[in-house]
UniProtKB/TrEMBL annotation:
InterPro entries linked: FAD-binding_MO, FAD/NAD-bd_sf, Flavin_mOase-like
Name of one Pfam family that matches: FMO-like
SUPFAM superfamilies per UniProt: FAD/NAD(P)-binding domain
Protein species of origin: Geodermatophilus obscurus (strain ATCC 25078 / DSM 43160 / JCM 3152 / CCUG 61914 / KCC A-0152 / KCTC 9177 / NBRC 13315 / NRRL B-3577 / G-20)
Alphabetical list of PANTHER family matching this protein: MONOOXYGENASE, PUTATIVE (AFU_ORTHOLOGUE AFUA_8G02570)-RELATED (PTHR43872)
Entry annotated with the keyword NADP: yes
GO MF entries: flavin adenine dinucleotide binding; N,N-dimethylaniline monooxygenase activity; NADP binding
Name of the featured protein: FAD dependent oxidoreductase
Family listed: Belongs to the FAD-binding monooxygenase family.
Co-factor(s): FAD
UniProt entry keywords in alphabetical sequence: FAD, Flavoprotein, Monooxygenase, NADP, Oxidoreductase
Length: 498
């Protein structure tokens, strides 16, 4: 006797990831399309994504929360550059305020998803990370909101002699709760946003902190508190003040980026001048804070109230620019012959990029090879029906792009419902269209993974815009229909390219 299998649960939309993107997607679905059924699957046991995962000292945003926060939910805290606990509280408040608690299914990791044109739906293989149980769900749409890096491991280069070091070696992505660095010599390897965050935080209690970098980064002090925003809240109230501050900060961010792109030499001189003012007299600024690339070829590192520079001025932190020859029992030996002694070594050496959360995709039995796909409006993949990938800006606040993308997605679903369509499949009209990397960014963590990521085209709608103003037009103001987005009805397989 054969035991009947329980029916597979079906949803209109399956959102993967309960971080800042997935929470935003859930809120837009709940408010814009209340009749749609959806669930948010989160592989970990808690919401918040990055802001719950990372626990290293000093962790904070490097974008202001008036733009990194959601457009629909004012940021009410006095800190503009905020620490992780405040951001996490904001995200979980968003979940509760929008009734999303019941929609989030924790410890649910998506392993694979297969699209059936005959059924016009995805079948999704899921693992319960708490029990090991396997289950299946089906959905009309798959919304991948897991960001673009691996949550289970960070990037650590191979260091000769690593096993010789007698002290602890930790990566910020797996910071041990019991690590005691008070009164000790700490060596932080790296020069990016994580390193410049860690150094001043560790320097508060460590005997000495050294930031060892192979190549300098651009580092700029920014106010931790936005005085104008806090004043406007008093005068205008939360909602109006937030809207005005958000617009101000968007315009400021766009202006700075454009200035750096158009006048890189002037931008370099300005940043150097600011750094010189922040550092002790006679400090070798060009050795440690003058990168070989132009400003905004990689992301600028922000330090709230100049805390990194203050630690250097106080003598509790220093910077060394050199290459590691080998680890030793007591630290590292540099290519210059100098040895840096340390009790604790922190490898702030970056992230491992992983597109779509490592999910294995198939369309009608054929595996989807991401580098063979081209991104449509920066949010869908050519030849992959009813699939959205939510990736924010690399040159601005991540959430600015996510909000526009979620709006556009909801408008597309509403249009399809109104006209009886249930399948949306982007396809370039020119299969020989020139392409380039989807994330056209010089940062090392992107370059290491560029051959595993989707591509972008040389024209709209296949270009991945990095301009908020351009995306406002494309994703908010323009029509959701496009000649290269093929809409169809599964019942009779009628296809249109409206």
């Amino acid at each position: 006797m054969t035991t009947a299998q329980p029916p597979v649960e079906h949803l209109d939309v399956l959102v993967v990831g309960a971080g800042i993107s997935g929470i935003g997607a859930g809120r837009y679905l709940r408010t814009e399309l209340p009749a749609k059924s959806f669930a948010i699957l989160e592989a970990r046991a808690a919401s918040g994504g990055t802001w719950d995962l990372f626990r290293y000292p000093g962790i904070r945003s490097d974008s202001d929360l008036h733009t990194f926060g959601y457009e629909f939910k004012p940021w009410r805290d006095e800190q503009s550059i905020a620490d992780a606990p405040r951001i996490l509280a904001y995200l979980r408040e968003t979940i509760t305020e929008n009734g999303l608690d019941a929609a989030i299914r924790y410890s649910h990791r998506v392993l694979a998803a297969s699209w059936s044109t005959a059924d016009a739906r995805w079948t999704v293989d899921v693992e319960r990370t708490d029990t090991g149980e396997r289950l299946q769900l089906s959905a009309n749409w798959l919304f991948c909101a897991g960001g673009y890096y691996r949550y289970d491991e960070g990037h650590t280069p191979v260091f000769a002699g690593r096993e010789r070091f007698r002290g602890p070696i930790v990566h910020p992505q797996a910071w041990p709760e019991d690590l005691d660095h008070a009164g000790k010599r700490v060596l932080v390897i790296g020069s990016g946003a994580t390193a410049v965050t860690l150094v001043p935080a560790l320097a508060e209690t460590a005997a000495q902190v050294t930031m060892l970098q192979r190549t300098p980064s651009y580092v700029m002090p920014v106010p931790r508190h936005d005085a104008l925003a806090n004043r406007l809240r008093t005068l205008l109230g939360e909602d109006r003040a937030y809207a005005l501050t958000r617009r101000k900060n968007i315009a400021r961010g766009i202006g700075i980026w454009r200035f750096c792109q158009k006048y890189p030499r002037a931008a370099r001189r300005l940043i150097r001048w600011v750094n010189t003012k922040q550092l002790p007299e006679g400090y070798p600024v060009d050795e440690h804070f003058n990168p070989p690339y132009d400003p905004w070829d990689q992301r600028l590192c922000a330090v709230p109230d100049g805390d990194l520079f203050r630690a250097i001025r106080n003598g509790t932190a220093d910077v060394v620019t050199d290459q590691i020859e080998t680890f030793t029992e007591d630290g590292v030996l540099l290519a210059s012959g100098r040895e840096l002694e340390a009790d604790v070594i922190v490898t702030a050496t970056g992230l491992n990029v992983q597109a779509i959360g490592g999910i294995s995709l198939t369309v009608d039995g054929e595996p989807v090879h991401l580098p063979d796909t081209v991104t449509y409006k920066g949010m869908m993949l050519s030849g992959v029906p009813n699939f959205v990938i939510a990736i924010g800006y690399t040159n601005s606040s991540w959430t600015l792009k996510i909000g526009l993308l979620c709006e556009h997605f909801c408008r597309l679903l509403a249009h399809m419902d109104a006209h009886g369509y249930d399948v949306a499949r982007p396809e370039p009209s020119d299969p020989d269209m020139p392409t380039r990397p989807f994330l056209d960014f010089a940062a090392g963590y992107i370059q290491r993974a560029v051959d595993r990521l989707p591509r972008q085209g040389d024209r709209m709608p296949w270009l991945t815009s990095t301009s908020y103003s351009a995306d406002v037009k494309l994703l908010r103001a323009d029509s959701v229909t496009d000649p290269e987005l093929h809409l169809s009805r599964s019942a009779d397989r009628t296809e249109v390219t409206a």
